[in-house]
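Look at one record.

>
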Amino acid sequence: MKNWKFYNVLFIRVLLVMTLFFLCVFLIYKTFYYNAILVGAFMVIALFEMYFYIKNESLFYDKTLLSILQNDFSTNFPEENKKGNFKNLYMLYDTLKVQKQEQTSKELVYRSILNSIDTATLILEKENEEWDIFLMNDCFSNLFKVPKVSHWKYLKNYLPSLCDEIEKVEFAELKTAISIKIEAQDLQTFMLQTSHTKTYNKEYFIILLDSIQRVIEKKEKEAWINLMKIISHELMNSLTPIRALSQNLLHIVDQEALEEEDFDDIKSSISTIINRSDHLQVFVENYRKLAMLPTPNKVMTPINALFDDCMRIMTPILKAENIELINEINSSRSILIDKNQMEQVIINLITNSVYALKDKSEKKMFLSSYSENNRFFIIISDNGKGIDPAIKDKVFLPFFTTRKDGAGIGLTLSKNIIEAHGGYLSYQTDEDKTNFVICLI
């Protein structure tokens, strides 16, 4: 309460009381008793006035501080206090009030965002070694038919399987699948992901739940959207010029007389239409290959024989491109596959490696294989330019290609063939090599 105006006023009051006191003593000394009593009465009144002045100032100060401590910013300052003794206190109060309003606004925005997302979200807050529910979004409440309770122990009455799973790991971070029964419905599987965070003296535990069926549907929808974009792009690239050329031909033949230049235009237009039609035919044929992949006709096939046939086709290409082949496959075992389809996969992957090595001065390709846990792995690697992180999610997308002469079905077709065999195709990129891994069970 360091305010000079307040101290000046208090000093004047103290000086007045002391003056009246010494005057009273002087009058008693001079035996002016009645005058001394009158002065003494004025001194008592001055003391009471000074007491209530200090009390009122202190009460206002304490009341304002208590409001700040309790986050109650509903108090209105009198105008005289905004400019008087409590000017600095008012500035502090007003600054904290604005900050509180901004914080409340942000909390409302965060809650609105959390309530708008379609992932079930639950945030717990630790209070005296007990977990309370800090926030439950609408998706969580609606999905699991749970009211927005405030305590963890109440939530256990509604979702015991979820709560038991989290308590079992002692509120540690985890990512797993969990089956939850919602009211009288059948068990449903969800992807459970939790995280732990601390801020100042608070501790929070975040729980996210996504329906696996919903995740699958979302991925399928995204895949269809991407596929339709590519198909639309390819169709428009051919149909637009065909339509323009057809209109031009119609305009030419509508003329009364045709000149030599008109016949040249007709030939050029028809040639272009044929080329674009051929391109469309190839595109549709490639789509048919993906959509109508035959069921693998599996027979026991020696691994060495499989790669010998593949390399018989690819070796001339590797030599022409000056690519050094390091073949570490030398296995006497056989695997149950459709040999023709598997040859197509290996040739596709080797062709991709050839393209990736185009701009390299030192070109190396590696073939290797190994068995582990009843699974057989084939790795085709190269030291080429690798896969750009920007397109890593599009590598297996139908018709997506970075090559000018590519159809964009090689990797997609290869992936479909491997999956039809009950395995999977993946890739790994590091600083030195890009590895495509075929896993067969």
About this structure: The chain has a mean pLDDT of 78. Residues 228 and 234 are 10 Å apart (CA to CA).
